[in-house]
Automatic annotation (TrEMBL):
Gene3D superfamilies: VSR Endonuclease (3.40.960.10). Residues 1-97 form the DUF559 domain. Keywords: Endonuclease, Hydrolase, Nuclease. The keyword Hydrolase applies. This is Protein of uncharacterized function (DUF559).
Amino acid sequence: MTDAEQLLWSRLRRKQLLGVQFYRQKPLAGFIVDFYSAAASLVIELDGSQHFEAGHQANDKERDQQLAAMGLLVLRFDNKQVLQELDEVMQVIFDTVERQIPPCPPFSKGGKT
């Protein structure tokens, strides 16, 4: 893992974020995604400088479209963002997870209403 991946993983692992399980280096649709939460239908990708090259951007776009077709939302951050603006990155992830996971319905006892 890169330094940025290690840093982000230290904040996502062990259900630290809203009690949601994340996996790292998860195989999905023939790809290996950096971080994945099934509960939030969320993929998080961290990009190094090579991802700013035209060829990589086209591949990333195609990959994101295939993941979106599976009902997954893809968040992309560059390594520098994670290393220098971790709190802001975590806030974006927190807000996204909160939106992606529907609120639990209120508890109701069995019986007729």
